[in-house]
Design brief:
The protein is α+β, with helices and mostly antiparallel strands. The chain has a domain of 205 residues: Chloramphenicol acetyltransferase-like domain (Chloramphenicol Acetyltransferase, 2-Layer Sandwich), CATH 3.30.559.10. It is 38% helix and 20% strand. It has nine helices and nine strands. The strands form two sheets. Strands 1, 4, 5, 6, 7, 8 and 9 form a seven-stranded mixed β-sheet that branches. Helix 1 crosses helix 6, helix 3 crosses helix 4 and helix 7 packs across helix 8. The longest helix has 17 residues. The C terminus is likely disordered.
C-alpha cells in the first residue's frame, strides 16, 4: 500500500517553550478542574483610575487580580499546598509565577513573586514591570539558564532533563539555581494575563514540574449584560478562568477561593485594607492611607 503525500512538514526551529511543553505532556490524563468566575469590575476600574490620577502609577487589572488571589490564599492557607510522592505538603508562603511573553511572542517565560500577600498592589506592579523588561531583554530570572540550555536540546532530551530536574528540586529539595532550576520555582499558583490579546476566555494546563495547584488566566474585561436589582444593565465584566488540581481542590474549596476573590475585586477598598495591613509591617501606612480612593467610603463589611 502506497503512502499518500504527507500534508505536514516538520518544524525545523522549535522555541524552547514548545520543547518543554512537548516533553512534559503526553495524553491528557491529569485530575483537572476547570472553573470560571464572572466579576463586575465597575468599582475595580474606578479604583484603578483614581489610583492613577493620584499617584501617576500604572496599575492594571492583572495587578489587582494578583493581589486578590494572594489575599484569598492568605485567608485560606490550607489551600496553599502541593502534591509530591502522593503526599500533600503545605507551603509557608504565598508565591506566584507570572507568565510573560517575549517581545516576538514566540516564547513564554515567567517572573517569580515571593510573599505576594505581604506586598502592596504598587509593589506587585513594580516587580512585574521590572521582571517583564528583564525577560524581554534576555536577562530574566534564575531559570533563564535552563531555558537557554533546553534551546539547544531535542524534545526527547528535554523530557529527561525536565524529569531529572523536577525530581531533584521537588522530591529531594535540592537547590539547582546555578543550573537554572531554583527551589520551588513556580510557587503557589501560576497567573497568565491574556487580556491584551483580546482573549475573552481561556484555560491553561497545570504544569507538571511546577507542583502548582492552580493556574489562573486573566482575559479581557468586556462590557456585557448584567442583572442588577432585577434589571438588565451593562457592566464591564471580567471572566476569570481557573484550572485546579483535583488532588488539592474540590467544589467547596473552589467556592471559598472564588467568593473571596470576587468580593475583593468588587469591593477594592477592602483590598486596600489588605494593602494597609501589608504596609503596617513595613512602616508605610501613612502613605497608603493618603492614596486610598474615596470610593472606600461606600464599602460594606465582610
Amino acid at each position: 500500500m502506497k503512502r499518500g503525500k504527507s500534508r505536514f512538514s516538520k518544524e525545523k526551529s522549535v522555541p524552547s517553550f514548545f520543547k518543554m511543553a512537548n516533553a512534559m505532556w503526553k495524553t491528557p490524563e491529569e485530575p483537572f478542574i476547570f472553573s470560571s468566575l464572572n466579576i463586575d469590575m465597575t468599582r475595580a476600574l474606578a479604583w484603578i483610575k483614581t489610583h492613577r490620577e493620584r499617584t501617576g502609577e500604572k496599575i492594571t487589572v492583572t495587578h489587582l487580580c494578583t493581589k486578590a488571589l494572594a489575599m484569598a490564599y492568605r485567608k485560606y492557607p490550607k489551600l496553599n499546598a502541593k502534591v509530591e510522592a502522593n503526599k500533600i505538603y503545605r507551603r509557608k508562603t504565598v508565591d506566584f509565577q507570572i507568565l510573560v511573553s517575549t517581545e516576538s511572542g514566540d516564547e513564554l517565560s515567567g517572573i517569580k513573586l515571593n510573599e505576594v500577600d505581604k506586598k502592596t498592589v504598587s509593589e506587585i506592579a513594580h516587580e512585574i514591570r521590572e521582571g517583564a523588561l528583564a525577560v524581554r531583554s534576555n536577562h530574566g530570572p534564575s531559570y533563564q539558564a535552563s531555558k537557554d540550555l533546553i534551546g539547544h536540546c531535542s524534545i526527547r532530551l528535554t523530557r529527561w532533563i525536565m524529569k531529572i530536574a523536577s525530581a531533584l528540586v521537588n522530591r529531594f529539595n535540592m537547590d539547582l539555581s546555578s543550573f537554572g532550576f531554583p527551589d520551588d520555582p513556580f510557587g503557589t499558583a501560576i497567573i497568565s494575563s491574556v487580556g491584551m490579546h483580546g482573549i475573552e476566555s481561556a484555560y491553561g494546563p497545570l504544569v507538571p514540574v511546577s507542583r502548582c495547584g492552580l493556574l489562573m488566566v486573566i482575559p479581557e474585561v468586556r462590557e456585557k449584560p448584567w442583572v442588577e436589582g432585577g434589571k438588565l444593565v451593562v457592566r464591564p465584566v471580567l471572566k476569570l478562568c481557573m484550572t485546579l488540581d483535583h488532588r488539592l481542590f474540590h467544589g467547596f474549596y473552589v467556592s471559598l477561593l472564588q467568593k473571596e476573590i470576587k468580593y475583593l475585586l468588587q469591593n477594592p477598598e477592602t483590598l486596600m485594607g489588605g494593602e494597609i495591613r501589608a504596609a503596617e509591617e513595613k512602616g508605610k501606612v501613612r502613605v497608603l492611607r493618603e492614596i486610598t480612593p474615596k470610593i472606600a467610603a461606600g464599602g460594606s463589611s465582610h
